[in-house]
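Technical annex, item 7. During the second reporting period the consortium partners agreed on a shared format for inverse folding records so that results from different sites could be compared directly. Each record opens with the tokenized structure and is followed by the designed sequence. A conforming record, contributed by the partner at site C, is shown below for reference.
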């Protein structure tokens, strides 16, 4: 079980690293929030699942297991609120953006 939890730790650290690189490398706030939401949420949930596998049904393991859905739902709702607020505030999309679906919803 220890080896499986180490695999989940490694996967989680890689996804968190990719999310951080996306925050630095991507061109606008909308792409950056997508990178942060998708990658970092999956990475953090993977790390929490590795903690659960490592500690089992103890206090630490159950807290890690319960935190997975909380992180998943809180990060997606927060990212949606930030993107919607950014769009309403008037922050421009990247000039090479192809589709703006939210423009039709605003009208």
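Designed sequence (site C submission):
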């Amino acid at each position: 079980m220890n080896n499986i939890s180490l695999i989940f730790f490694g996967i989680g650290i890689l996804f968190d690293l990719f999310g951080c690189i996306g925050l630095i490398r991507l061109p606008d706030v909308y792409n950056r929030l997508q990178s942060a939401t998708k990658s970092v949420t999956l990475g953090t949930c993977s790390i929490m699942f590795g903690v659960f596998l490592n500690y089992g049904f103890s206090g630490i393991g159950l807290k890690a297991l319960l935190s997975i859905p909380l992180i998943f739902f809180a990060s997606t709702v927060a990212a949606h609120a930030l993107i919607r607020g950014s769009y309403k505030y008037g922050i421009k999309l990247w000039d090479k953006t192809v589709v703006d679906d939210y423009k039709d919803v605003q009208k």
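The chain is about 80% helix and 0% strand. The chain has a mean pLDDT of 89. All partners now use this format for quarterly exchanges.
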